[in-house]
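Training component of the fellowship. As part of building independent skills, the fellow (R.M.) carried out the full modelling exercise for a liganded target. The chosen ligand was nicotinamide-adenine-dinucleotide. The inputs are recorded below so that the supervisory panel can assess the work.
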Amino acid sequence: MSKVAIITGGGSGLGQATAIRMAQEGINIAVVDVSDKGGNETVERVKAVGVDAIFIKADVSKAEEVKSYVDKTVEHFGSIDYFFNNAGISGSGKFYLDTTIDEINQIVDINLLGALYGVRYVAEVMLKNGGGSIVNTASSAGVIGQDSVVTYSATKHGIIGLTRSMVAEYAKDGLRVNAIAPGPTETPMVRAFYEANPEMKENATGGIPQKRLGTPEEVAELVTFLLTSKAEYINGEVIRIDGGFTSTK
Ligand code: NAD
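Fellow's submitted model of the complex:
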């Protein structure tokens, strides 16, 4: 029987590229996003590859909507084998003391609580079915400190704690949980961020040993490898995919 993946933030960027790459492996996809436009576009592109896909509109920062996307996936496909826990937003690019409490709350709600809720409900289904594989999206900002991203960085460090501690509790039951830590990757989110903060793009590319941003397709390849059985003995890892960026810090 075909395997089933849930991909949050599947309507754009890393999530969309991964949905398409996983579909090429014959995996059916539940695309979760707040954006109707992006979600529906991904479903169309995934179906064109020849697998089944559904769009579930949900805000990952709302626990009841997370439970609902998990329930709807199980209703439609019968199980969940893979989970790319990826939806997230970037910060405003301001120094921490210039950010408002509302901005802090919004980033924490989506990036950290959204990821925690996702693992909470998805792992429950996976463990009932004998196991599964999860990849959480951290960031370079989850493994090093950087200016202008304090709250974002705190959430992404949190993603790594979530990843490692889940392994401590559930690896013995057949669950694999890994994280990816991409450097700046050319997606709509990053394009928008650098358009608002052009001086930071120059800094970012200049500081990358490979002297270019990553691509969503490169990240999709890594996530597909980590989620599927090719990576069966990799667990609790944080894989950096950043052109050497954090290795020089
Ligand atoms: P993106 O903006 O292209 O895609 C993010 C998607 O998430 C969008 O479709 C958006 O609608 C969706 N989303 C936002 N808030 C949501 C919510 N509350 N509920 C459901 N969906 C929501 O961005 P991306 O670059 O593909 O980012 C994906 C993940 O990768 C994020 O967690 C981001 O922090 C992380 N990341 C990105 C980069 C990069 O350079 N692009 C680097 C490191 C980490």
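The panel noted the following from the submitted structure. The beta strands are 4-8, 28-33, 53-57, 82-85, 132-137, 175-182, 238-241. The pocket of nicotinamide-adenine-dinucleotide is lined by residues 8-9, 11-15, 33-35, 38, 59-61, 86-89, 110, 114, 137, 139, 182, 184-185, 187-190 (CB under 6 Å).
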